[in-house]
Amino acid sequence: MLSVKLPVKKYAGVTLVELMITLAIIGVLSAVAIPMYTDFIATARQAVMSDNIGSIRLFEESYKLEHRVYYAGSYLPSDPDAADGLKAVIGWSPGTGQDVIEYEVVLAGNGFTVTATHLEFADTVVTKTF
């Protein structure tokens, strides 16, 4: 008896079901990762603003030791070297040329309030009173 072997066809590639499963997995991962990344960026932005406010506080305290009053002024990224700005008067600047955060110091009673507003994300505002 003669045995005949039929040729076996091998298919290369992926099936439509495999492709759809892969896309579903990528979709689920994206749905979880993108909001987490957005929250991470917002938290980092607020942390930078809080750190800079703390730095402004130190410069304000130093200014008060010399002049017996706090200084009310602002820092504008569009005009960092303004004659009445925080950089010119108390010596504070954020230390980067790519800053997009506006800082304002307002006197309040015996202390002061510092407000930081992100110019590209207006809903990101940090305010601290000292």
Q: Can you characterise this structure?
A:
It is rod-shaped and about 110 Å long. Helix content is 43%, strand content 18%. It has a 4-stranded antiparallel beta sheet with strand order 1-2-3-4, covered by helices on one side. The model has no long low-confidence stretch (mean pLDDT 86). A hairpin with a 2-residue loop joins strand 2 (101-108) and strand 3. With 130 residues, the chain is of the alpha+beta class. The protein has one domain (16-129).
Primary descriptors:
single chain, 130 residues, alpha+beta, 4-stranded antiparallel sheet, 2 helices, rod-shaped
Our Rg estimate from Cα atoms comes to: 29 Å
| Percent of residues in beta strands | 15-25%
Distance between the termini: 100 Å
Shape: rod-shaped
Low-confidence stretches: none
Name the helix and strand elements from N-terminus to C-terminus, one letter apiece.
HEHEEE
Q: Give helix % range.
A: 40-55%
Please state the average pLDDT score.
Answer: 86
Counting DSSP E segments of at least 2 residues, the number of strands comes to 4
* Alpha-beta classification: alpha+beta
Counting structural domains, the number is: 1
> Can you list the strand order of the major beta sheet?
1-2-3-4
Q: With helices defined by DSSP (H or I, 4 residues minimum), what is the helix count?
A: 2
Biggest beta sheet attributes:
4 strands, antiparallel
